[in-house]
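Researcher: Here's the sequence for the chain we discussed earlier.
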Amino acid sequence: MNIGVIGATGYVGTRLCSMAEGLGHNVVRFSRQSRAGFRRIDLSSPLDFSGLDSVVNLAGEPILGMWTPEKKKKILRSRVEITRKVVSSMTENVHVLLNASAVGFYGNTGEREVDESTPAGSGFLSEVCQAWEDAAMPVEKAHCRLVRLRIGFVTGPGGAMRLVRPVFQLGLGGSLGSGRQWMSCIHVDDVAGMILWALENQLVSGALNAVNAEPVRNEEFTRTLSRVLNRPAILPAPSCALKLVLGELSHILLDSVRVLPMVAQRMGYSFRHSTLESGLRAV
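Model: Thanks. This is the structure I predict for it:
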């Protein structure tokens, strides 16, 4: 395949490009910065999709940081604007667009299990994911296959784990809030692997949850990571403290997200790391 990757310098994008090239695919990277070997993203003109048969859109303002009104605008605007530009730049040679969003689409699920057939939830993250996906929908009118990838908490050597792991290595880790909230995790190799699988499999379209088949409670995540690192995890972070320090960003840590990858399982995706512990030990 000839794959265009928007957001190629991010954690998932970097791994995707490396894996794709290792499998013999041709990868064209896009960036808003002037970089050697990259095609330029300029929102004032169409993107150059010449020679491509598939496009992966992973771009967006990082969600980490205090959610000030201005930060929230950037989070939403960056995703919607770039996705609209991707859609308006589509040419007949591109047969599939994989547009990434997140399991935040479902909001706080509590104890309820959700899958791709579950409607959107509520809250800021859900609103962002809905707008993000809605911006991609027009490509279907041009008979382009659209995959809406909803990514869970990504484990691996980088990303959010780059911040979490040192804390646990120092023996300062612990459960967040009650520790009873659900987490839907996936190793970065499986995010990249699922993207390539979805691009190649013409029967895959619509929503696709990129998560392991077994969600875990935060307290189980804490125990598993401490066991893998052979370090104690005895310093819980109370909900009230997280809300005070992080404001609305605390929803990412305290909301329950119990998501199942029903489409991937039904259609035969083979996970490289099917459990949380397998993914953590791979690092």
